[in-house]
Amino acid sequence: MTGPSTMAGIDPGGTPPTGAAELRALAVATLEGNWEHDHTVPSRTLYPHQWSWDSAFIALGWAHLRPDRAWRELRTLFAAQWADGRVPHIVFNPAARVGSYFPGPDFWDSAVADGAPAVATSGLVQPPVHALAAWLAYRRAPSATARSALRWLYPRLVAQQRYLTGARDVGGAGLAAIVHPWESGLDNSPAWDEPLAAVPADAAVLRAYRRHDTTHADAAHRPTDLDYARYVALVESYRAGRYRDEGLVGRHPFLVECPLVNTALGAAEHALAEIATVVGVDPGGHRERAGRITAALVERLYDPVTGTFHPRDLRTGRLVPARTALGLVPLLLPDLPAGQVEAVLTEARSPRFGLAARMDRPLPSHDRTAPDFEPLRYWRGPSWLNLGWLLWQGLRTHGRPELAAGLAASMTALVATAGCHEYFHPDTGAGLGSPRFGWTAALLLDVLATG
After folding, report:
1. Cβ-Cβ contacts under 8 Å for 316 (sequence gap 6 or more)
2. How many CB atoms lie within 10 A of CB 318?
3. Catalytic residue at 187?
4. In the predicted model, is pLDDT for residue 207 greater than 70?
């Protein structure tokens, strides 16, 4: 493994760089330092295994440096795909120290499920950004090797889509439901407060376990013990049913249609249409499914009163009122109707999020005018490069180059100010969470390369 200080003399934990060349060298050093023989760990502190959507974003970064690693990253992840098509949100590294992460493989006990892979994994999923990442990685570095990788990935990406639009279509309207906040990627966003309040749990449940996140980060920056107890209770509920999705309405206490997960689902079909063309498959079905997903997203999750997208709690049938960055992500969809495009742009440019051609502050993950905005706590206010990147892609897709450039400059300034941190203070830009974070480095590389 290449050590973190060997690339261009850059130390990922040292003084933040200022110029584009130095920023790129920092990002390269971060990815090299996190490479783990066949995948990239998100960080060397809190995250010692392979995470699903992290690997998708990280593959984009590798596509600019070592395309072979981009394809190996995705191949390693999809080699752990379950028989039903789900791609687990964690693939555990058997070489990692026992007890180095909670909840670990013993807690998940994926072997209880029919169709689980031989390697230990979690039983949850994350936003299906993998097809989009694979397509963009191919475009960044097309080659015969890349086409071969796409041919191997294509049926597995299709199986992932079928799982989410089939077994997880709990609401019956063509959208995927999540069974845990971790599946959204925005673990303890205020978007989940209302649905989580119905999950029976007591913080005392954590006495049987030991959280590892608060040994690597300030507890004031992480989910509360009560929230974590609810996360544990939800995993226990899903595991008790051997991770089956049949009958979830009657037995599982958290079922939500998430705007980000379903935006990624629609974007995946658009990407799969492009991939299908490369590998010699008719792309028509993917385009039709993409249209249906976008229509269902607008019908189910768009609120014309607020002019933005909200999660739908399937237990109550209501839209969750919190205005978070989840509501901006549907801009990623190229077929989002013009009315919703303009409404999302209005929301993004509002004081809640502050998107502009010249941004005074980073894009927050939650409405910065809300009373429950927390600038330090995980997903409840801080700025994240992956959310910025998704919105940046959407702005470029819908022909808003000035806003895209403003957001790109803001994202780049975060790393120039604080380094490749996991997330950032949404007012000062100070680095928060894990240092030397993989997707921050990878997506910075993509932004720098695209211009």
Report:
1. none
2. 13
3. yes
4. no
Torsion of CA 406, 407, 410, 415, to 10 degrees: -140
What backbone torsions phi and psi does residue 12 show, to the nearest 5 degrees? -60, -20
Q: Name every residue whose Cβ is closer than 8 Å to that of residue 10 and which is 6 or more positions away in sequence.
A: 17, 22, 25, 26, 28, 29
- Which of 194, 374, 422, 446 is catalytic? The answer is 422
Whether the pLDDT of residue 200 is over 90: the answer is no
**Tokens matching residue 64:** 């600019």
Q: Are 206 and 232 in contact (CB under 8 A)?
A: yes
Residue 341 CA, distance from chain mean position: 22
Q: What is the DSSP letter of 257?
A: E
What would the mean pLDDT of 428-433 be, rounded to a whole number?
95
Q: Who contacts 128 (Cβ-Cβ below 8 Å, separation ≥6)?
A: 87, 160, 161, 164, 261, 264, 265, 268
For the chain, how are helix, strand and coil distributed in percent, rounded to 5? 50, 5, 45
The amino acid at residue 429 is: G
* 422 belongs to the catalytic site: yes
State the chain's maximal CA–CA distance in angstroms: 57
CA atoms within 13 A of residue 423's CA, in its CB half-sphere: 23
User: Rounded to the nearest 5°, which phi and psi values hold at 312?
Assistant: -110, 125
Q: List helix spans (H) across 252-337.
A: 259-279, 284-301
Do residues 445 and 28 lie in contact, with contact meaning Cβ atoms separated by under 8 Å? yes
Specify the residue for token string 């975060």. 414
How many other CB atoms are found less than 10 A from the CB of residue 254?
25
Phi-psi region of 421 (alpha: psi -120 to 50; beta: other; left: phi over 0): beta
pLDDT higher than threshold 50 for residue 85: yes
Instruction: Pick from 9-18, 22-31, 219-228 the range whose average pLDDT is largest.
Output: 22-31
Q: Considering 54, 73, 84, 187, which one is annotated as catalytic?
A: 187
Q: Which domains are assigned to the chain?
A: 35-438 (1.50.10.10)
**How many residues are present in the chain?**
451
Asked if omega into 4 is within 30° of 0 (cis), the reply is no
Write the pLDDT tens digit of every residue in 100-155.
Answer: 778 899 999 999 999 999 999 999 999 999 999 999 999 999 999 999 999 999 99
Return the DSSP state at 117: -
Torsions phi, psi for 450 (to 5 deg): -80, -30
